[in-house]
């Protein structure tokens, strides 16, 4: 099962967008229930995009078309283990987020809880 996380980016928190998400997504967490440091809780943000970025910029990017092509190729080539490892870190991140009441917590991630 997947839960849609609304990250509260300005383009994503208009009334129309929130209404659409409530109607179209079965498990929707609205913006007021999501902590302000949500990228710290999103596996794509805290892990996968870093892997993609590292691979994209191994060679110079000359234009937007080349960037789009490279992103598409790299994204489709991400191995499932990268996603699995990112998801495995989520529970620890969530515990730390709760512990600090939604404030910044990355400094706590290197300690075992």
Helical residues, percent: 40-55%
Strands of the widest sheet, in order across it, are: 1-2
Order of helices and strands: EHEHHHH
Which term fits the overall shape?
globular
Q: Could you state the oligomeric state of the chains shown?
A: single chain
Structure characterization notes:
The protein contains five helices and two strands. The chain is mainly alpha-helical and 113 residues long. It folds into two domains: 34 residues, no CATH class; 77 residues, no CATH class. A two-stranded parallel sheet has the order 1-2. Strand 1, helix 1 and strand 2 form a beta-alpha-beta unit. Helix 2 packs across helix 3 and helix 2 packs antiparallel against helix 4. The protein is globular, with a radius of gyration of 16 Å.
Task: Furnish the topology, listing elements before pairings.
Blueprint: E1 4-5, H1 15-24, E2 28-29, H2 43-56, H3 64-77, H4 80-88, H5 90-99
Parallel strand pairs: 1-2
Helix pairs in contact: 2-3, 2-4
